[in-house]
Design a protein that fits this description.
The complex is a heterodimer of chains A (about 575) and B (about 750).
Chain A (H helix, E strand, L loop, with lengths): L1 E2 L18 H12 L4 H4 L2 E2 L25 E8 L8 H9 L10 E8 L4 E8 L8 H5 L5 E3 L6 E3 L9 H5 L6 E3 L4 E3 L5 H5 L5 H5 L5 E7 H9 L18 E3 L9 E2 L12 H26 L2 H27 L19 H24 L1 H4 L7 H27 L8 H30 L3 H30 L12 H10 L3 H27 L7 H28 L12
Parallel strand pairs in A: 3-11
Antiparallel strand pairs in A: 1-2, 3-10, 4-5, 4-12, 6-7, 8-9
Helix pairs in contact in A: 9-10, 9-13, 9-14, 9-18, 10-11, 10-14, 11-13, 13-14, 14-15, 14-18, 15-17, 17-18
Chain B lengths: L1 H8 L11 H5 L2 E3 L6 E3 L6 E6 L8 E7 L2 E7 L12 H4 L15 E3 L5 E3 L2 H19 L4 E5 L5 H14 L4 E4 L6 H11 L9 H5 L2 E5 L3 H4 L1 H8 L6 E5 L5 H4 L3 E3 L6 H14 L5 H7 E2 L1 H8 L4 H8 L3 H13 L3 E5 L1 H4 L4 H14 L9 E4 L6 H7 L14 H11 L14 H9 L5 E5 L3 H4 L3 H9 L3 E6 L12 E4 L5 E7 L4 E7 L10 H12 L11 H12 L12 H6 L3 E2 L28 E2 L18 E6 L16 H6 L5 E4 L1 H6 L7 E5 L4 E8 L7 E5 L25 E7 L8
Parallel strand pairs in B: 8-9, 8-16, 10-11, 10-14, 11-12, 13-22, 14-15, 16-17, 17-18, 23-27, 24-26
Antiparallel strand pairs in B: 1-2, 3-4, 4-5, 6-7, 6-18, 19-20, 20-21, 23-28, 25-26, 25-28
Helix pairs in contact in B: 4-23, 5-23, 5-24, 6-17, 11-14, 11-15, 11-17
The chains are: A mainly alpha (about 575), B alpha/beta (about 750).
Chain lengths: ~575, ~750
């Protein structure tokens, strides 16, 4: 289609009567301002149905032939050419039609050297299209695919349900969550362009041709990773085998560090996950403590406490699972989580907790309404016990899955032993607190002789256990601060620094609440229990119970907030922040 | 793609969805022409090419249009300037138009001190009534304007003509005073006309490239691209105190004491003469003043120069040898030279080097000033401030007659002398002689040197009018009246880039609310003022282009051979000169290929004078030297535009920072990321510490883009160009007690 019009006077010819009448001129100029005239004024040959990709200039930055067996496409960055203009970031944003704030490429800065030979090195980075992508392994709905021919790690936007687990799993901070759309999006190496022989947006926009697409040998990538030949200061390449090659003729000084190396910044707290983790652990712990109590008390008391404790544990468990839904960008597709069972710990967690919830419902129903539901008498005790045991076992497996979600993403604060200790102690602590809540509720709502005797008998055991578990847990958490003494800026030191700087207030509150719920409230209760009768002390009992449970729960929620907010996330070098 | 996915989905559309609406959002499609793939939903139905509106590189951008309105852009592949590339600012040029900060109606300060929207009619009446009232009491000279290098040449010319011929103003200047006034004077004295001689192809043709006070890779990434594309493996020499990105890529980095570049150039010239590494025949035929220069240079022996610049004798000799070895040596300078207390002489010392070695007028050579703003070069010729329209002289009666005749105005309406430069206009405000100020498209409350004093000066005005695309600039916030201007992309006109290329800008986006082009605003003010008939022929920008063309006739910048905008568009910009019957229509042309300069004798002149010490030396109280400059390629000047793009905001540090050397940091117990106090005699600021070896000891660097930077700078000016010396003043740095962020 050829459009050729060139009439420049068409829009701006003044009318005769404008002379001496500024208002008329004003009116015309305001109206002219809204007429867009570039197309009429300037001829431009333009084939709307365009036929050719933008190929002419890019033969140096594209491979001559597609990858063969044992090969894949990869970015190659020539550090000697990158001068840090960051055109690649804006070109990717514009040529891919990303949202206002969205960027799929970043440019960081390494600094080092000496006064006589200073070095600054900008580093452009996007998805590394890893051989073993952590995002793909983590994804519970199989929204990631690694193309068998090109090796490109592609995200299926419509398949994603917005759990954001990949944003935690990727060591390079590549997948970015788009809250408005409820999904994650990421670089696909402009596969549409590559297929047609056009260079990816960043490659074609680099004024210095610092970025290229190359075919790499998979074995070479693995060998390079083993020799740590990826990029100084970048996360360990042996985890996912990133395929990007950073090349330079120069030898970077050994003291090169990202310019933001000494900055620590709090991470996203993921509140729905905070609630979900704490309450699921409470629920599993409460079921377990319920069974535990049964070893210490007589059958008659078991019958009284069992339904209360089961309902309590179940309610918190169901609350936890509903909270988890709020973490999904597109909760309507939650059922897709079954797809990743083979590889994703998040998938496993979701499925096992689903199973746990079902079993817990059955068990609770069985203990709450045994008489009416069964014409031929109550459900046999051994069934109940077996059911209870299976609830606890499945719940424990589910909590283990939760542990693995975090342990598998290789962040020091979240490593296996730390996370298993943390989650296990939370289960014990809140399980005991819930058990006390159930007992107190029973005694306050139905203050029969028998119930009061139960409280007097079991109460001290629970209180002492709680004090013990709280001491262990708070002591263990406080041990994090010993990393402040470390000279190296280790990830654990970063977490510790966050706890005393940006997160000092929540950290203080966490310890205060922990002490209140785990030391002060049990002490109050023990005093009340030792004072002969409970009859006249219902109010005090109620208040102390609420303090014990409320403060313990709030303390654990804050502990979990800090778990997320104070973690040091691995990433590529950043810029000045 | 859709067909394969639907077959995979068969039976399980809910469980597996490979190609739904979210996937389609990011589909790409061929955009047509040279565009390649573009987002499918933004596929243009037409494109048009125009010049970028940020810096003076003048890149050609293909604007993607849907029904006449811009929906995206890509750099033009065949534009001779940028060859398919753009820096982040160019890529985001359209994004910054869409902002809640845009001025959408005239704003008048109400009795409560707030800026409230008023009609254009009321705004314009207020403008003329108040300005005329001031003039009536205090004389025509009591109102002045401060303009910009960011508007179209036609707009600059209309403003200059309206203000000086129509409204009776004598004084008006541009923010171009802050970036290229030094180069103007240097060229005028050396070549006889303000004429940057080069074309960008020279970057590719040199075998030695000497960059003085220029962080080209960051400030002008697309010019840097031309160096990267140089096939001759050139020697790249960077003369700069800091080890900048550009220095990193250089083959020689000469780190000298700040503001010792004049001495360095003199020492180099002496060395070249002493070793007879100069071009005698070129000097004899095409230059004047050599003997005087040679005599003057005698005292600049290596010993003196090395001690005054901090550069080793080996480095000096290597540099001289490099220049001698080069067959095509080009010298380039930017703000490190221009923004200096002796900028003009430094620029001329660089020109001297090119003249001595005969490195001018041939491919890959030249003494080349790289300008700042997109239309600084337009303002140099047509702003009607320092020069009478078209590079003419206010004090020359023949020039005044020529202009009066061409414009069909009374010769008496043309002032007989040039107006006051920027800093003198501000002095005029300070001493009460100037009481009304009209600020167009610039942000002095952020950008002017010694900001504390500047704000005090603006406070003294009876009437401050700010005409800008954003109502949120630091200066607009101080205004009595804000006039909402349409931006680049919302108007027609031409820009002239660093290599003298005239290119078109076009109206491809609708201005928000009642914002009007600067051109329309000037036309309206002429009408309201009562001098509209004087500009009856200045109907629209292209009509003005035709007028300007005639004014250029016979001047070194003669472009009478350019027919119209369509010709500029079709030829992808045309460099001046381009007189009628230009034989050489090559897309890239340089000046002085015939060795003929613009002085009456046809010769270039050597100019020199004794270097002067930096006015504010570090002392015991302020022991550090503060350098200022560009922070990143994603930032532009006072950030009124670049801060409006969410993507650009991610590409530069949100908070002001100060770069310092690890040794100084350790002495002062400053750690990376600490908030530190930087103070000068004039003011202080708090900034985050960035500790880098690239800063020489006892020097610190603060980017100019942050609002507080100029609280520190010292209002010192080059005595010839009156350009402010932003680059060096004495400061003290201290760690805040706890190193935490200011509250």
């Amino acid at each position: 289609m050829l459009e050729a019009l060139a009439t420049t006077d068409a829009v701006t010819t003044p009318r005769q009567n404008e002379v001496g009448n500024p208002l008329l001129l004003l009116e015309r100029l305001l109206s002219d301002q809204q007429n867009l005239t570039a197309v009429e004024q300037f001829a431009k040959q333009h084939e709307a149905a365009g036929t050719s990709p933008r190929t002419s200039r890019y033969h140096q930055v594209l491979p001559a032939s597609p990858p063969g067996p044992g090969q894949q496409y990869a970015f190659e960055v020539d550090l000697d050419r990158c001068s840090g203009c960051k055109a690649c970031v804006t070109a990717c944003h514009n040529l891919n039609g990303l949202d206002t704030q969205e960027t799929w490429r970043d440019v960081g800065l390494l600094v080092g050297g000496t006064i006589s030979l200073p070095v600054i090195q900008h580093v452009t980075t996007a998805c590394h299209h890893c051989l073993e992508p952590a995002c793909l392994t983590a994804c519970p709905v199989n929204a990631y695919e690694k193309d068998p021919l090109t090796g490109i790690v592609k995200h299926l936007d419509d398949q994603c349900f917005g759990c954001q687990y990949c944003t935690l799993a990727c060591p390079y901070d590549v997948p970015k969550y788009h809250a408005g759309k409820g999904i994650v999006r990421k670089c696909d190496m402009c596969s549409t362009r590559l297929t047609a022989g056009e260079a990816p947006a960043c490659v074609q926009a680099c004024p210095s041709q610092a970025i290229a697409i190359r075919v790499v040998n998979v074995n070479q990538v693995i060998e390079d990773a083993e020799a740590s030949l990826f990029l100084p200061t970048a996360p360990d390449p042996q985890h996912t085998y990133p395929t990007t090659t950073y090349k330079s003729r120069r030898v970077l000084p050994r003291n090169m560090l990202p310019v933001d190396y000494f900055q620590v910044s709090r991470q996203h707290p993921h509140w729905p996950l905070v609630v979900m983790l704490v309450l699921t652990q409470l629920s599993v712990g409460a079921f377990a403590c319920g069974i535990g109590l049964e070893w210490f008390v007589s059958t008659q008391w078991i019958a009284a406490i069992r339904p209360v404790q089961a309902v309590m544990a179940l309610v918190f468990g169901l609350l936890a699972l509903s909270a988890s839904v709020f973490h999904l960008g597109r909760p309507q597709f939650a059922f897709r989580a079954v797809l990743g069972l083979g590889h994703s710990w998040l998938s496993r967690e979701i499925v096992v907790f689903g199973f746990f919830a079902a079993l817990a419902c059955v068990y609770s129903a069985a203990v709450v309404a045994p008489v009416h539901m069964h014409a031929d008498g109550p459900v046999p005790q051994q069934w109940i016990k077996a059911l209870a045991a299976s609830v606890v076992v499945v719940g424990t497996v589910a909590v283990f899955c939760s542990v693995m979600i975090y342990a598998s993403v290789r962040r020091d604060l979240w490593d296996f032993s730390r996370t298993v200790t943390r989650f296990g102690l939370t289960s014990a602590l809140l399980g005991l607190a819930t058990l006390w809540l159930s007992l107190a509720a029973l005694a306050l709502i139905r203050p029969t002789e028998s119930h009061l005797a139960l409280v007097a008998s079991a109460g001290p055991k629970i209180c002492y256990s709680l004090v013990l578990v709280t001491s262990v847990k708070l002591g263990w958490e406080a041990m994090l601060l010993r990393h402040l003494m470390s000279r190296a800026m280790t990830p654990m030191k970063r977490s510790a620094l966050l706890m005393i700087r940006d997160l000092a207030n929540p950290a203080l509150a966490r310890f205060a609440l922990g002490g209140l719920g785990g030391f002060v409230a049990p002490a109050l209760l023990l005093r009340q229990l030792s004072a002969a009768t409970l009859d006249n002390a219902q109010l005090q009992l109620g208040v102390a119970t609420l303090l014990l449970f409320g403060a313990s729960l709030a303390g654990e929620l804050l502990e979990r907030y800090l778990f997320f907010a104070a973690v040091a996330a691995p990433r590529m070098p950043g810029g000045i922040r | 793609m859709a067909s394969t996915s639907s077959s995979t989905n068969l039976g399980l559309p809910l469980l597996v969805d490979r190609a739904g609406p979210l996937t389609r959002e990011l589909h790409l499609a061929l955009g047509g022409g040279e565009l390649g793939f573009v987002p499918e939903r933004l596929r243009p139905d037409a494109t048009t090419t125009m010049v970028c509106g940020f810096c003076s590189t003048g890149c050609g951008l293909d604007i993607h249009l849907q029904r006449g309105a811009a929906v995206g852009l890509t750099p033009n592949v065949s534009y001779p300037v940028n060859q398919g590339m753009a820096c982040p600012k160019g890529w985001e040029a359209l994004a910054v138009l869409d902002s809640p900060d845009r001025a959408t109606a005239p704003l008048l300060r109400d009795p409560h001190g707030r800026l409230s929207p008023v009609s254009w009619d009321q705004g314009l009446r207020t403008f003329t009534d108040r300005m005329k009232a001031i003039q009536k009491v205090h004389g025509p000279e009591s109102i002045a304007f401060l303009s910009t290098g960011q508007i179209a040449t036609e707009e600059m010319a209309l403003l200059g003509a309206l203000a000086k011929f129509g409204m009776g103003m004598l004084h008006g200047d541009g923010n171009t005073r802050q970036c290229m006034a030094t180069a103007v004077v240097a060229y005028q004295e050396a070549f006889g006309f303000d004429a940057p001689p080069y074309t960008y192809a020279d970057f590719e043709q040199s075998d030695v490239i000497v960059l003085v006070g220029s962080n080209l890779a960051i400030a002008h990434p697309i010019m840097w691209q031309r160096i990267v594309n140089n096939p001759h493996s050139p020697e790249i020499v960077v003369i700069d105190p800091r080890a900048t990105e550009t220095a990193m890529q250089a083959t020689q980095h000469v780190s000298l004491f700040p503001k010792s570049d004049l001495t360095l150039c003199y020492g180099l010239a002496r060395l070249l003469i002493e070793r007879d590494w100069i071009n005698r025949s070129f000097i004899d035929t095409h230059t004047s003043g050599f003997d005087g220069l040679a005599d003057f240079l005698q005292p600049f022996n290596l010993e003196r120069v090395c001690s005054e610049t901090g550069v080793s004798a080996t480095a000096m000799e290597k540099l001289a040898q490099t220049i001698q070895n080069g067959a095509r040596v080009s010298f380039w300078w930017t703000m490190g030279v221009n923004q200096s207390h002796q900028g003009v002489r430094t620029a001329q010392a660089i020109i001297n080097l090119a003249l001595l070695t005969g490195n001018i007028g041939r491919p890959g050579t030249g003494a080349n000033s790289i300008t700042g703003q997109c239309n600084a070069m337009g303002s140099r010729l047509f702003s009607n401030t320092t020069n009478l329209l078209g590079g003419h002289d206010f004090s020359n009666p023949a020039h005044r007659r020529k202009i009066a005749e061409a414009l069909q105005i009374d010769e008496q309406a043309i002032p007989q002398e040039k107006g006051l430069p920027y800093h003198k206009i501000l002095d005029g405000v300070l001493n009460g002689k100037i009481r009304g100020l009209w600020v167009i498209g610039t942000n002095p409350a952020h950008s002017w040197i010694n900001q504390g004093q500047l704000r005090d000066i603006l406070d003294r005005l009876d009437f401050l009018v700010v005409q800008d695309m954003y109502a949120s600039t630091e200066t607009a916030q101080l205004a009595d009246l804000v006039l909402p201007a349409a931006a680049w992309g919302e108007k027609d006109g031409t820009f002239i880039n660093s290599e003298r290329r005239i290119g078109v800008v076009k109206k491809v986006a609708r201005a928000p609310g009642a914002a009007l082009t600067d051109f329309s605003i000037f036309k309206l003010i002429a009408e309201y003022w009562g001098c509209g008939s004087m500009f009856a022929d200045w109907k629209h920008p292209e009509a003005v282009f035709q007028i300007l063309k005639q004014l250029s006739a016979g001047q070194p910048c003669d472009f009478t051979g350019i027919e119209d905008y369509a010709m500029l568009d079709a030829r992808r910009g045309i460099q001046w000169p381009y007189p009628v019957d230009t034989a050489n229509g090559e897309p890239e042309r340089r000046l002085f290929e015939d060795g003929h300069f613009f002085h009456p004798d046809g010769k270039a002149r050597f100019v020199w004078s004794e270097p002067r010490p930096m006015p504010e030396q570090p002392d015991s109280k302020y022991p550090f030297l503060l350098l200022t400059g560009r922070g990143s390629a994603a930032q532009w000047h006072t950030q009124t535009r670049t801060s409006k793009s969410a993507v650009l905001r991610k590409l530069y540090p949100a908070e002001i920072y100060v770069e310092l050397n690890p040794r100084d940091a350790s002495d002062l117990k400053i750690k990376p990321g600490d908030w530190i106090m930087v103070s000068s005699q004039r003011g202080r600021l708090q900034a985050k510490a960035v500790i880098v070896h690239t800063m020489p000891p006892r020097q610190v660097f603060v980017p100019m883009h942050y609002a507080t930077t100029n609280l520190l700078t010292d209002a010192v000016f080059d005595p010839y160009s009156f350009q402010p010396a932003y680059k060096a003043c004495a400061v003290r740095i201290e760690r805040r007690t706890n190193g935490d962020a200011p509250r």
